[in-house]
Give the backbone structure.
Amino acid sequence: MRFPTGRIFFPGLDALRFIAALSVLIQHVSQFQVQIGLAEPGWFHRLFLSGFDGVVLFFVLSGFLITYMLQAEGRTTGRIDISAFYVRRILRIWPLYFLLLSIALALYLAAGRNTPGWVQPHDVAVFGLYAALLANIALVYALPALAISQTWSIAVEEQFYLVWPLLMRLFSNRLLTFMLGVVAVKLLALGFLVHEWPANRATIVVSQLAFESLAIGGVGAVLVFRGSSVLRPLFHPLGQLATVGAFVAVVYTRDDVLFRSRTLGVTILSLAFAALILNVGCNERSLLRIGNPVLDYLGSISYGIYMFHPLLIYGIV
């Protein structure tokens, strides 16, 4: 959907973004409660997505929005301006990212491994990985630094942004085939690694490289952009009911390891979230209208909430 100003906007997706950020925040609050022996988490956190599910929802949302915007740019201007895309992503992501990284580094230099209540990296050089936007590597191969372990997902998205517009230009005539191929390659590669070396760090890195979730969001964007008839059953009231049922099932099974397997589990979860995104943001007859000024505003600042909430929780504790 397009406003007269040309800005692309999908109603309700900011609200979904806030739900994802809030789910991660509540998960981390519960973890801190257990870690410091304050109290058991209780039942409240079970009303939300798990932190893992919240991050997957972030990935699918990002894949959908970025892919749709790149398609819209390609149709409007005749080409995807990759350098302009990089500049927009840098201005959107880097200021808060490197501000938080600077605060974390200052805390490390001040207290190092003696930081109260937190196990810090053994070497300041770990911050070089964070600075290089390789936080996902740092998280797996070193101890996480105070207040920035959550940036692993930002690093994954930045790595996705680095290659996605190039690949979309390269496969412009076969976008759906390309994106489904990304999902298939990830599943096959990860399935092999999990079978052969399940506990290997490289397997964990590949598992966290959530290109299948991002690509599934991209598939949704292509279908919407083309007005595909494939969406009709999904947008039907029964399809919307099934979407709600899938979301409830995700919340209900939040602690079920079987439904969170690193291979098919994440793919099924991503498909459920893609159905939710499409029905909330793209179905003109949607019964799932969750957008409102408050949630939309909170969604617009969800990146800041996601980035700074661990530091805030730690400071309060």
